[in-house]
Amino acid sequence: MNAAIDKLVSGFKTFHERFFEENKELYQRLVTEGQSPKALVIACADSRVDPAIMLQADPGDIFSIRNVANVVPPYQEGGDVSYHGTSTAIEFAINGLGIKNIVVCGHAHCAGVKAMVSGQEGSPVGGQFVPQWTSIINKGYELAKQKNPGAEGAELDRCCERQSVLVSLENLMTFPFVKEKVDAGELEIHGWYLDIAQGELSRYNPNTDKFEMVAL
In what order do the strands lie in the sheet with 101-107? Predict the structure, then answer.
């Protein structure tokens, strides 16, 4: 008996009874007319920060990409990298679905960012794939040290989590089709940060270079 899987199956039954049956027309419309989400949300794969739950989004509202540490890699053409999962999803969202907003949403207590910090401070990072993947946001550590020279421990981790969001925003702009649409005013990119312990959401303000809390 697998209690974890049984719970998931039970959850689907509840979803079907309480949500699907009441929203059949919505699902049928999404199938016949196709999806037209208004925002791409790039979030962490962390089980505590599901963007659909956090944002209370309905089916069809958001196109989401989830990976370790909500990383956007820089644009590449071919090269030695064989798989471009995140880049492919970004391309499909912008060029295929015509999405007008991209949100990169980082969060507090991110193990992926912590792995990056550990690597930058000379500690070994376990795993075959994690070290290379999280090294994409190494610049987040440099930015955190520049902006908060005395930060250490948990304070440094929180700073790095926020600055890593900015690194991903910067990497987004290396995609030609993203930059073209941003420059033309046809696409907006946003940096968000969720404090999962406090239930607080902050948005990056480029004018102040700070993450400012969303008023509740």
Answer: 62-67, 39-44, 101-107, 188-195, 200-205, 210-213
Look at the alpha carbons of 50, 56, 58, 61 in this order and tell me if their dihedral is positive or negative.
negative
Distances (CA, A) of 126 to 82, 134, 147, 164, 203: 22, 11, 28, 20, 32
Its sign, for the CA torsion 39, 42, 45, 50, is negative
Alpha carbons 104 and 42: distance in angstroms, whole number: 5
- pLDDT tens per residue, range 205-216: 999 999 999 998
Rounded (5°) CA angle 54-172-95: 85
- In whole angstroms, what is the distance from residue 49 CA to residue 83 CA? 25
* 21 and 93 fall within a common domain: no
Residues 20 and 44 in one domain: no
Cα Rg for the chain, rounded, in angstroms? 19
Residue 160 sits in the same domain as residue 126: yes
Total number of domains constituting the chain: 2
Token reading at 26: 């919505």
Residue among 200, 196, 179 at smallest CA distance from 188: 179
pTM of the prediction? Answer: 0.94
Range of the domain at 18: 1-34
Task: Work out the burial of residue 59: count CB atoms within 10 Å of its CB; fewer than 13 is exposed, 13-18 middle, 19 or more buried.
Answer: middle
* Alpha-carbon dihedral sign for residues 169, 113, 196, 4: positive
- Express each pLDDT in 154-185 by its tens digit: 999 999 999 999 999 999 999 999 999 999 99
35 φ, ψ (degrees, to nearest 5): -85, 150
